[in-house]
Specification:
mainly alpha, 73% helix
Length: 203
Amino acid sequence: MKKSKEEAEQTKQEIVDAAKGLFAVKGYAATSMNDICTAAGCSRGGLYHHFESKEDLFIYLADQAFTGSWKNWDEEIDDAMTATEQLYAYADYFVDTLQKPLNKAGEEFLSRVGPNSEAGQRFLGILTTYMQRFERLVQNGLDRGEWKGDNVQELAMMILGYYSGLSDSIQLMGKGDAKRFYRKATKLLLEGIQKKTISLRGR
């Protein structure tokens, strides 16, 4: 019996969720399509109906994680907030959406397929889109005269690299403690890039 569109989408998402858990625990290379079928409770035919290969599945998962995260961010953020307030909010959001094991799987994926392959280029395109979206936040801080800097790409890369590096330090922390840690780190970061005192509502 042919599945409805809603049932097909549900099956597809179950496959993605199962793959996400396996990639996070076992890594990209050690996870097989059979593993994903078993975890998702679907047939190989059902899996390949939605995804041509493990590479295709991983890229879909990455796009859902990186691109989808900005859609959620846009729904949460208040345009009336200063760029500095938005950066504090992003620090919280970074902790909420941190997927450290999947980030490692992404590094493994890229090393296996190669950055110049079609799959590698698609994956890098997703990361580039994420970075460009973050650059909009940084550009806002520069345009408003809140932050110092003359190169938005470099400043955005520095901030994201700073947050990413700190993520190794919060693995054993609860969510509340991790957010407090990131807020302190953000305050320290802002002391280096702020041009003037910004009034922060409720902070």
